[in-house]
Amino acid sequence: MGNGQEMAQRTTGNKEVSFLQDAPGSKEFSCVFKVVLLGSSSVGKTSLAYRYVKKDFQDSLPTVGCSFFNQCVTLDATTVKLEIWDTAGQEKYHSVCHLYYRGANAALLVYDITRKESFEKAKVWLSELEKEFLQNEIVIILVGNKLDLSEEREVTIEEAKEFAKTNCILYTETSAKSDYQVTELFVTLAHELLELEQQKEKLRHTTHWKKSRVDLQETASRRMKCCQK
Amino acid sequence: MEAEDPGLPPKGGMDLPQDGVDLPEQKISPGSMDTGEDEPSVALDEQVELPGAQNNGPLSVAGGKGDVQEELTETREESSEKDLSDSASTDNTLEDSSEFSRPMVMDGGPPGEEEVAVQPRPPTHRDEDVTAESWRAHRKHIFVLSEAGKPIYSRYGNEEALSSTMGVMMALVSFIQSGDNSIRSIYSDDRKLVFVQQGPLVLVSVSSTLQSEQQLRQELLYVYYQIISMLTQASITRIFERKKNYDLRRLLTGSEKILDRLLNLVESDPCFLLGAVRCLPLQPALRDSLGSLLQKAITPNLVFSILVARSQLVTTVQEKTVIDDCRLEPTDLHLLLNLIGATSAFQTGEIWTPICLPRFNPDCYFYAYISYLDADCTVCLILLSTDKESFYSVSDCKKRIEEGMRTQSYLQALSSGLKSPSYSVAMVGAPDLRHFMYKPLDIPDNYRQLPQFTSPELEGPYCSESERHRLFDLYHYLHSRIHSTARPLRLIYHVAEKETLLAWVTSKFELYTCFSPLVTKAGAINVLTKLLRWIKKEEDRLFIRYPPKYSTTPNPGKGSKGPRTEGAENGFFGGL
């Protein structure tokens, strides 16, 4: 439960001040980030996006293909534009999903805490992303949604946390229905993106980009080749 | 589609058709296969199955080759192979789009995974008890199964619970197939069972409505095409070639609602029956301006721009890149609109999705950009591109269209037209007329255009669902008589229990009208004359007469407006 705050705090504690000093020249354009929501069907990807963009909740029908929104986040003096790609969870669209996550700056791997299988699917998505991206290219957050149904929980916090830790990704739990930690999630994401951007900026100036690798927060345990086992 | 129906007598036999007056009590049994027994008797079409000649429905797709190697034993083995099939199936899916090189392997998942593939839903039709009498009592059941007898979709009740029923259906199909033939329908006292086989899919309709076999077949094809619109025919064929007992529900999870919605629409919206698109009644000047706005906002690989409001067509633009002979088929547009209607949407969102237009090309995807232009999500812009990477440029087209609509206040003009749902039949000024459906066949440049139709709001006695069903049953019946392949009619005057109907087809239009029951034949004819005059007066508003497309090609159809004379219409009834 406390994870969301924990994460948000960690990031806020870390970042934004130094960023503003560091990269005041981060002009308008570098602050547009592509965020993709991935996960099995009916885990609440659209609801999360809807909650965040529209500040509301509605029972939604399945998404076709992908639905696209823009949302600006103001972090202190910086305005970050998030291009949110809310993908369809249905399996029939998996074959085209790479279309949507290609070039993404961030991915939210959403699962339903009351459905173990959706958590497994999130793991699969992670391994997909690992094939497509280098670790320092993309911010990945594992999102356990439907916290309002926590009595029916099938995926424990520990389990998810452990998985996130091993794979060096962020983790939080949300409820789009009761508006718990949704805005925080996206704000954190924006912070992370700025941080990543800033580090990339640095790398462009430093010589050897390969060895100075970005680590989001944890110690530099390299990502495992396969997330499954 | 019906416009080209070869069943219509070609010559203008303008005199009284022999069976113009129809006896209401006459039972419709196209085949002579009525049997009283519960034991279903099999109505075989005599003709031995030829590839392509298999469907006499107008939508028939060639190439459904009779694949007889299906064996029943396979059906029984399916359970033992289930795990194998399901874990391997992910590969199939991913390879569908030849670009996805990395199969997503799920073998790390826990063993419970297969069971939860079908997700929990709020109670729906799908949770019905399939052994209950109420389940049997549904007007129309639709089943979709694979050649291996695996359930894919059932309109009511859980497919899983129906697997033995579907097994029986497949057994029937296979049995007939083994005799080098194909099962088409079974008639019982109160039900018609219609079978359609399309590639590896078998679709079955069990209906107690008045619809003809051909109409039911048509509906099944709509279902098939809707599935194709999501998966493409090529990938379905490929999947089943690789794995005969693949569980297609994996790929259709979440799509049941789309099929459910389609089947409800098919029963309540005449656009499916008539194979025509309903246009939003609109001032021609406004329609033209909107058309030219769409025409200006284009980008490479953009093929169709379609503007709809509440599922009614406002205007459509087809780009020059599309070869001359092609046009957007009404079926494709209906399926597309149904898909859009069955998915989540809110105003700020822009949707980018692969979609197949099965009548246009059943094997390939278009990429559809879908966005609503107003806060109430009534005005919807659909842009179809062939380039999957073109989201941003297509989205930019939308911005230009939106901008143009704002500066010209087209949106206000449109939404004021949308306030009243459609129009009332009272506008015709004929008190005895309750409802009508009019499909013009004389639109200039007809062969390149979307077939259109118009009909007023359903009012008066047809407010409840059951009354509406009753009316559409009657329309279906008239339609089936008009389009009967055995003995097509041009004119039917049908006195039903609670209303009187008249259907009439000429070379210029197809018209179905519904009158109050007390109307006399002469009265009905007077009303028809009035109605036709009214439509003539309003046709520029009701229909897209001159579609804006091919800016480089002159529209040859424009001249054909002249020869149309009202006299021909009015004089028609001289023989009655």
TrEMBL record, chain A:
Keyword set includes GTP-binding: yes
Keywords from the named record: GTP-binding, Nucleotide-binding
Presence of keyword Lipid biosynthesis: no
Top-level taxon of the source organism: Eukaryota
Residue ranges crossing the lipid bilayer per the database entry: none
InterPro entries, alphabetized: P-loop_NTPase (IPR027417), Rab_GTPases_membrane_traffic (IPR050209), Small_GTP-bd (IPR005225), Small_GTPase (IPR001806)
Pfam families for the chain: Ras (PF00071)
Gene3D superfamilies associated with the record: P-loop containing nucleotide triphosphate hydrolases (3.40.50.300)
Similarity comment text for this entry: Belongs to the small GTPase superfamily. Rab family.
Protein's UniProt name: Ras-related protein Rab-17
Record organism: Gekko japonicus (Schlegel's Japanese gecko)
Gene: RAB17
From TrEMBL, chain B:
A Pfam family matched in the record: Fuz_longin_3
Location of the region described as Disordered in the Swiss-Prot/TrEMBL record: 1-133, 548-576
Residues covered by the FUZ/MON1/HPS1 second Longin domain: 301-401
Compositionally biased intervals (Basic and acidic residues): 73-85
Residue ranges constituting the FUZ/MON1/HPS1 first Longin domain according to the UniProt record: 140-262
Family matches, as InterPro entries: FUZ/MON1/HPS1_longin_1, FUZ/MON1/HPS1_longin_2, FUZ/MON1/HPS1_longin_3, Mon1
Superkingdom classification of source: Eukaryota
Residue span, FUZ/MON1/HPS1 third Longin domain: 433-539
Function comment: Plays an important role in membrane trafficking through the secretory apparatus.
Family the UniProt entry places it in: Belongs to the MON1/SAND family.
Official protein name in the record: Vacuolar fusion protein MON1 homolog
Gene name of the encoded protein: MON1B
